[in-house]
Design goal:
The structure is a single chain. With 334 residues, this protein is of the alpha+beta class. It contains twelve helices and nine strands. It has a five-stranded antiparallel beta sheet, covered by helices on one side. One of its GO terms (molecular function) is ATP binding. It comes from Nitrosomonas aestuarii. InterPro entries: Aminoglycoside_PTrfase, Kinase-like_dom_sf.
Length: 334
């Protein structure tokens, strides 16, 4: 029986006395699918996370961890074996849509998102949460040569280029692993934040880990799906830093040092994201992610330009761009 029919039958079992309609709500970069369930005047969100590709348990566990601290969906019913969840509905207005339609509201929306981020980072204890350790950070970095360079650009790195890549990865990891560890959402950006009351509603937190304190701020301010002037990014980063210090989080007392950590964390994330977007396009057939690569590459290049230790990697990016055939160019504009 098809997944959708299984899901409909399961929902019917939860509401034997009610009729309902089911409409697609959204899909994400994984195998998960979401549907809006309408029962009269009430709506819920049904998550379909097909085993063995997905596991509902982390979502439920993190939702329980965040309950009372952040505005997240409440799990109303679950079938963990078949991969079905029924969740409270946080609406359909994402930050991305709201910011695109009304960019003048950005200051207020980012202030809300920053406050919510600090609240999540204050959650203690985090015993048993997966750690964003060297193995996971390095695994993510290695998506770049495997999927972006080899598959997307179809380039074989030279021995010297491989050495530059490895040395760069080592420097990045040294910075990332030296940062204080807190709760990390891992995808805290405009597609996963909803405009709600209280604001924001937070989605897609099932991959949360204990990791570097600047990671989620990078996801929020250097968003792969919406771009802001660097003056705005700097202003919002300062406001976060001030709020984090007042809250007692372990951020550097010197903003310059904090911002360096923020940018180096961004380098890790953007290298990873280029690899993930290539994998989504070529392995999973989600070609639209290729359109999001230029902005991510722009973030990456700008950060590399600012730090001497990253200049060899910037030179490598130039070499890859120059070696790419005209037929395969994505059309980067820097």
């Amino acid at each position: 029986m098809k997944r959708l029919q299984l899901l409909e039958n399961w929902i019917a079992q939860q509401f034997p006395e009610k009729s309902f309609t089911l409409q697609p709500a959204s899909a994400d970069a994984s195998f998960r699918r979401y549907y809006r369930v309408t029962l009269g005047d009430e709506t819920l969100i049904a998550m379909d996370a097909p085993p063995p590709h997905e596991d509902c348990a982390p979502f439920v566990q993190v939702a329980q961890l965040l309950a009372g601290t952040a505005h997240v969906p409440v799990v109303q019913a679950s079938d963990m074996k078949r991969g079905f969840l029924l969740l409270s509905d946080l609406g359909d207005l994402t930050y991305l849509q709201a910011l695109t339609d009304r960019p003048e509201n950005a200051k207020a929306l980012y202030a809300d998102a920053t406050r919510a981020l600090i609240d999540m980072q204050l959650i203690m204890p985090l015993d048993g949460m997966p750690v964003y350790d060297e193995n996971l950070l390095r695994y993510e970095l290695n998506l770049f040569p495997e999927w972006y360079v080899a598959r997307h650009l179809q380039i074989d790195l030279t021995a010297n280029q491989k050495t530059v890549l490895e040395q760069t990865f080592g420097r990045i990891l040294q910075n990332n692993l030296s940062q204080p560890r807190v709760f990390v959402h891992r995808d805290y950006h405009s597609r996963n934040l909803m405009v709600t009351t209280p604001n924001p509603g937070i989605l897609d937190f099932q991959d949360a880990v204990l990791g570097p304190i600047t990671y989620d701020l990078v996801s929020l301010l250097k968003d792969a799906y919406i771009c802001w002037d660097e003056t705005h990014i700097l202003d919002w980063a300062i406001r976060y830093w001030e709020g984090a210090r007042r809250a007692g989080l372990s951020v550097s007392s010197d903003f310059g040092n904090f911002y360096r950590d923020f940018e180096w964390m961004g380098v890790q994330r953007h290298i990873k994201v280029l690899g993930i977007f290539a994998r989504l396009a070529y392995r999973d057939g989600k070609q639209s992610y290729l359109n999001d690569m230029p902005l991510v590459m722009t973030y990456l290049r700008k950060a590399c330009e600012r730090y001497q230790e990253l200049r060899p990697f910037l030179k490598l990016l130039d070499e890859l761009d120059n070696n790419e055939s005209s037929d395969e160019r994505v059309g980067y504009t820097f």
